[in-house]
Amino acid sequence: MMTTWPSRAWQWLNNAVWRLTHGPDPVIVFPAGQESPRVCLSTTLGDIHLELNGAQAPITVTNFLAYVDAGFYDGTLFHRVIPGFMIQGGGLTSELRKKGPLRPAIRNEANNGLRNMRGTIAMARTNRVHSAQAQFFINLLGNSSLDHKPNDFGYAVFGQVIGDGMKVVDQIAKVATGSQGIYENIPRQPVVIQSAKRL
Q1: Which of 61, 62, 60, 64 is nearest to 73 (CA)?
Q2: Which domains, ranges and CATH numbers included, belong to the chain?
Q3: Is pLDDT at 80 greater than 50 in this prediction?
Q4: CA-based Rg of the chain, rounded to a whole angstrom?
Q5: Are 89 and 136 in contact (CB under 8 A)?
Q6: pTM score
Q7: Which of 8-22, 38-52, 91-105, 108-122 has the lowest mean pLDDT?
Q8: DSSP string for 95-129
Q9: 111 vs 147: CA distance, rounded Å
Q10: What is the Cα–Cα distance from 11 to 193, expressed in whole angstroms?
Q11: Are the C-beta atoms of 89 and 123 separated by less than 8 Å?
Q12: pLDDT of 93-151, one tens digit each?
């Protein structure tokens, strides 16, 4: 018990600072029957269909859908591909420039009970707990190291790939990668999200 106290205190402090600087979390309730919106990511290697979990990750899903509805993801890359781990996208253009404008960072919902299992989609972030904005990743395997724990807040899962989407994800995971400038694990042949639309 005593060994977890500093970590719990750290998490409490992070959440307290977040609320002091951003105010109380918005109350988001998805209408009955609309808690699981679906999105299609059309990529140069095929379509990835997603089912989002608005019941357990309402802040994250609302944020993601706002980017989808604004057309923000159209033309962005899967710019980080690590076989046996995950594929990451949603923030860089084909010229490897950061896309904007970005919405404000959101509260990390990694403590929602959803785990980073194969085929789940989660928000990418910096080393700051509540820093996620637009970038996301899809887990290629069960990545329990990314889950919420007493000593590590983790990465917020907010949906999963459905249908044949993992065939496309696995195809992306097999592309040859390299380094370019400050970026590593970049596909040598760009994998572009041509459009992201609600289904």
Answers
A1: 64
A2: 2-198 (2.40.100.10)
A3: yes
A4: 17
A5: yes
A6: 0.87
A7: 8-22
A8: TS-B--PPPPP----GGGS----TTEEEE---SST
A9: 8
A10: 35
A11: no
A12: 999 999 999 999 999 999 999 999 999 999 999 999 999 999 999 999 999 999 999 88
